[in-house]
Design goal:
- The chain is mainly alpha-helical.
- The protein has a domain of 38 residues.
- It is 70% helix and 0% strand.
- The chain has seven helices and no strands.
- The longest helix has 27 residues.
- The chain is elongated.
Length: 142
């Protein structure tokens, strides 16, 4: 899909920026639009969780072969629910920073965001997911 968009917009390339920056910007925008439409969500940062929350997430990390089918489905639903509170930009920041292991500078080059904005978006995403997990835990205790 990205290559099609690159070729469709090739007439718009002015040559003022390197081709790879222009293509990466199209890719980022395409991905953000796709994330927005599908509401894909990444995971939260393990270090921000309490001990109980870490245990839940560690259970999620177990491969599906090692996890009972009922727990596998419940774990997947929990993760999807936690990720559901994030905006597409926060999802992208978390995905690039923690799941793909990109540095802040690499993310800056890919997205065009400032390093401060990248860190703020990742922090806010982690906080949202942590609050949501706390709400879920509170409901289960009732």
């Amino acid at each position: 899909m990205i290559f099609i968009k690159v070729f469709q917009k090739l007439s718009q390339f002015s040559g003022k920026v390197p081709l790879e920056h222009w293509v990466s910007r199209i890719a980022v925008n395409t991905c953000l639009n796709q994330i927005e439409s599908e509401k894909v969500r990444p995971e939260l940062r393990h270090a921000d969780l309490s001990d109980e929350e870490q245990a839940v997430i560690e259970n999620l990390a177990v491969s599906s072969d090692e996890l009972a089918p009922d727990k596998c489905l419940a774990s997947r639903q929990l993760v999807e629910h936690l990720l559901g509170v994030l905006k597409p930009e926060e999802c992208l920041a978390i995905d690039l920073l923690y799941l793909q292991g990109c540095s802040v500078d690499e993310i800056r080059k890919i997205t065009g965001w400032s390093p401060a904005l990248i860190k703020v978006r990742a922090f806010r995403a982690r906080q949202k997911m942590k609050r949501q997990l706390g709400r879920i835990s509170a409901k289960e205790k009732l």
